[in-house]
Amino acid sequence: MAAPKQQYDIIVVGGGINGLAAAAYLQKSGLQTAVFERRDESGTFCSTEEVLYPGVKVNMHASLLLTHYGQAYVDLELERFGLELLRPPGSKYAYFYPFLDGNALLFSGRDARETYEAWQRISPNDAETFRKIANFFGPIMSVMGRGGPPSRQTDESFLAFLDANESIPFLPKDWIWMTGIEFADCLFENEQVKVGLLSYAATSGLDGLSSRIAGPLAVLNFLTLFTAEGGYTARGGSHDLTHSLVRCFTHYGGKIFYNCAVEKAVIENNQVTGVFLSKSATYPEAEFKASKAVISDLSAKPTFFGLIGEEHLPASARVALKRFDYRGSSLFTNYYVMSERPNFAASAKFPEVNNTFVYNFGAETLDDASRLIDGCMVRDVPPDPPVVWGAAFNYCIADPTQAPPGQYTILTWAMVPYDIRPLGGPEKWDDLREAYADKVEDVLVQYLPNLKTSKLARYVNTPHDYVRRNPHCGGNMHPSGSVNEAQMWSWKPFSGCGAPKTPIDRFYICQSTGVANYTNLAAGYAAACEVIDDLNVPRPDWWKAKAFDGAAELLRRQGVTQRFTVD
Question: In which residue ranges of the chain is pLDDT below 50?
Answer without folding.
Answer: 145-149
